[in-house]
Amino acid sequence: MNETPVALITGGGSGIGAAVARQLLDAGYRVTVTGRGERRLRDFADSLGNPEALRTVVGSASVYEDVREAVDSTVKAYGRLDTVIANAGFATHDSVAEGDPAGWTEMVLTNVLGPALLVRASVDALKESRGRIVLIGSVAGFVPTPGNLYGATKWAVTGLAENTRRQVTEFGIGVTLVAPGRVETPFWDSHGSLPPGNLLTGDQIADSVVWAIRQPAGVDVNTVVVRPLGQPN
Fold first, then answer.
1. Which of 38, 145, 177, 221 is deepest in the core (most CB within 10 A)?
2. What is the distance of C-alpha 201 from the center of its chain?
3. How many structural domains are present in the chain?
4. For residue 107, which of 120, 123, 96 has the smallest C-alpha distance?
5. Four-residue CA torsion sign, 232, 112, 24, 172
6. Domain carrying residue 30
7. What is the 3-state secondary structure (H, E, C) of 53-87?
């Protein structure tokens, strides 16, 4: 069996997911990235020169058949799976009292159901590798903000990370929640503008993700909250 480690990243064609993919490829990993947009995935692979160690799989993080296929095809192609990163997610940037409910179902399914589906689909392969699950949460999953349904989905991810850890630790699987503050990524495109103040970069968050993944055997880093200096909440 090829001992080169393998990672699968949902929503990996841009932003934090793409930054993690680049850093893991540079570290010698074989990587699968998933996303709903074929063009975005193709452009991402093209930007890296289409390395042999990178696979792209079109699919939705909130559809179990798509997630299962991404996991199964990765294991079939590479012979193993060491790390999954549940990165796919988005915000409708509105509020429960004044927002448009039309976008809420997809947001909740992607942000909350999606990570759970990835855990379910990958757990058997991760048992074999004694691998790691990384969930990308948010500071919004620790700090209440008025009317913020997106924040509520990230509170759910915070809980999911710890609930998952308590079950899979006995299988030798680690679980890490990485909760960023404000980050300059395409996340803000639907908001119309970047928030004020200092922003982290996708690469800075990827540094924390890769650090957690590459801890020594037997070490389980569970929660990493990363804010830019100057973000008080």
1. 177
2. 15
3. 1
4. 96
5. positive
6. 6-226
7. CEEEEECCCCCHHHHHHHHHHHHHHHCCCCEEEEC
Residue 190 lies in a domain: yes
Query: What is this structure's pTM?
Result: 0.94
Is 1 part of a structural domain of the chain?
no
Catalytic residue among 29, 64, 78, 150: 150
CA 32 to each of CA 80, 168, 214: distance values in angstroms, whole numbers, following the listed order: 12, 23, 18
State both tokens at 96. 């429960």
Q: What CATH number did the domain enclosing 95 receive? A: 3.40.50.720
Name the nearest CA neighbour of 84 among 48, 124, 50, 52: 124
The one-letter amino acid at 227:
R
78 is annotated as an active-site residue: no
pLDDT tens, N- to C-terminus, the chain (233 residues): 689 999 999 998 989 999 999 999 999 999 999 999 999 999 999 999 999 999 999 999 999 999 999 999 999 999 999 999 999 999 999 999 999 999 999 999 999 999 999 999 999 999 999 999 999 999 999 999 999 999 999 999 999 999 999 999 999 999 999 999 998 765 545 555 556 678 899 999 999 999 999 999 999 999 999 999 889 88
Any domain includes 92: yes
Residue type, 44: F
Rounded Cα distance, 170 and 151, in Å: 30
Q: 3-state class of 175 per DSSP? A: strand
